[in-house]
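Apologies for my clumsy wording, but can you show me some protein sequence, whichever is easiest, together with the matching structure tokens, please?
=====
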Amino acid sequence: MGQKIFEGLKVVEYGNLVSAPYCTKLLADLGAEVIKVEKPGVGDEARKHGPFPNDVPHPERSGLFLSLNTNKLGITLNLDTATGRDILKRLLKDADVFVENNAPKCMEELGLDYDSLEKINPRLIMASITPFGQSGPYRDYKAYDINCAAAGGVSIGVGHPDREPLALPLSQGGYQAGISAASAILIALFAREKMGKGQHIDISEVGVWAGLHVGVYVLTFIYIGVTGIRRGTHGGYFIYPNEILPCKDGYVLLNCPQLAQWVRFLELMGNPEWTKNPRYRNRRAMHEEYPDEANALWIPWLKEHTYEELFQLCMENRIPLAPIYTISDLVNHPHLKECNFFVELDHPQAGRLKYPEGPCKFSKTNWELERPAPLLGEHNEQILCQRLGYSKEELIDLEKAGVI
């Protein structure tokens, strides 16, 4: 489809688990050259996380790692050694972008903070993704999704009211911090064209949670009083209905923030007699005080229909309803097959697997999965010998010394 969006962009990643790897995956799948730096013998922590083929753990067969690191080159460097740090700095001297998600104090102690790197490459754009950002009283605190979701104000709305609060599932904070960093990198590239220099992008996962999930609902509380306190399967920040409910062959999500949408849904059901009761016309009270009672009135109608029937009916009537698909449903969905959403890649250890391609399509270029995630240290020789000028003998010495 022509030149890729980020073709020619040189990116170095020193990250673990989700946020930094997902950020650079987006860039790599759109054409950037991404060199992923991992610790010798250990690698990215994501290698320890499943799912694994046949449920057998293996550092080269982690579904999480394989998904997050497509199209990347992989090298190993021990950054606790002066030689390892020197090699990384040589790579960064010619790089456009550096993405990392390590503790600020750690990067400063290694001499890999932005103030240090800017001196060797003033055009470098560095994106740092941390739980609490690069400054402030919590910057050195370690945190995971559950901590960030709580500090960002999200957990108050997730879970059952008589149980402990929860985080949203599947590391969503890491993914959203990653895409926030990728978006900021794009803006910084435009800025570099005008100013001729790079900059430091500071992404706080707590800030991403608070901005993307909580901040947009502040006005909902101010103007209509919806608090967002957790209510189990009843969505916290919306007015009734915002429900996941059973149907004939599974579950569907119905969300009608606009009164006209709810009215069309009642018309679709035939305007049952209970809709005339004033108790079921106060949608805020239905949401916050007696949602289970209200749900019980129309669940029987849902159970008369399959989720695909409900989906089609609601699309025709402009009602926001979505089926809750299983993984099998998604992989075999005719729409996703038609747009080639899943592609297959061969991996030397994990075998042939299906991977989701990009979330959208462009008119002149596109996402493209060309190669699977790298084996640990797979491209050491290619990068260190062919690009940095080390001999194969020196490479062996570096390995013996624990540098690579």
Remarks:
- The mean pLDDT is 93.
- Residues 342 and 355 are 5 Å apart (CA to CA).
- The chain is about 40% helix and 15% strand.
